[in-house]
Please model this.
Amino acid sequence: MNSTPDPTTPEGRSEIARRLESLRAEAKEIRRKALENLEDEPSGALTNPSEIDLYRDRTNED
Model:
């Protein structure tokens, strides 16, 4: 079961820190993939945007 850790306890704070570190590592990997191999992914109106595409869209300046 995916319960919310209690931030008022040491165990809860360590669980929150562990989850944040996991999310940061995942985001770093997605960011890395988004910035390399730009032409490897299919594109078009019928493709669903992936996390990489969504990150790329958020970072484009145009």
Q: What stands out?
A: The chain has one domain: 10-59. Helices lie at 10-35, 51-59. The mean pLDDT is 79. Residues 10-59 form one domain.
